[in-house]
Amino acid sequence: MARIGAHLRAAVGQAMRRQRDRLTPVETAGEHHHKVEVVYRKKNGEVIDRVCNPYEIKPHRTSGAMMVYLTDDASGPQQIKSYRADGVRRTEETNRRYIPRWPVQF
Q1: Which pLDDT value is given to residue 13?
Q2: Whole domain around residue 61: which residue ranges?
Q3: How much of the chain is in helix, strand and coil states, percent to nearest 5?
Q4: Is 75 part of any domain?
Q5: Are 70 and 78 in contact (CB under 8 A)?
Q6: What is the mean pLDDT of residues 59-84?
Q7: Average pLDDT, stretch 77-93?
Q8: I want to staple 91 with a disulfide (CB 3.0 to 4.6 A). Which of 25, 53, 70, 87 is the partner?
Q9: CATH code at position 48
């Protein structure tokens, strides 16, 4: 039984490291006010690819799920979007700068 627990802990640890690795470019881009490309898988399975202005990564206030808060070029700079961190498939910092409309908190 302890062996199964160790395998489960190892698998959870690996998943958390992969998620952290996918989100690191979001934090770095936000700190430098650079746009970031985000590939995200929605609950319905649809995969979207957006160029975004990152603002914050924090737990959702009621569910506790880690959320990525940003604006995306497709929806316009006035609308803050929130993506569940576990839905983020790929991120890449760009060299394109943005001017933050709100405080960037990383």
Answers
A1: 57
A2: 2-97
A3: 30, 40, 25
A4: yes
A5: no
A6: 89
A7: 92
A8: 25
A9: 2.30.30
Phi and psi for 38 in degrees, rounded to 5? -125, 125
Tokens standing for 103? Answer: 């405080």
- For residue 105, being part of any structural domain is answered with no
* Contact predicate 104/70, CB 8 Å: no
Q: CA-CA-CA-CA torsion for 98, 31, 57, 101, nearest 10 degrees?
A: -30
| Residue 93 forms part of a structural domain | yes
Q: For residue 10, what pLDDT band results from cuts at 50, 70 and 90? A: low
- Residue 77 region by backbone torsions, left for phi larger than 0, else alpha for psi between -120 and 50, else beta: alpha
Q: Number of folded domains in the chain?
A: 1
Q: Is residue 102 part of a domain?
A: no
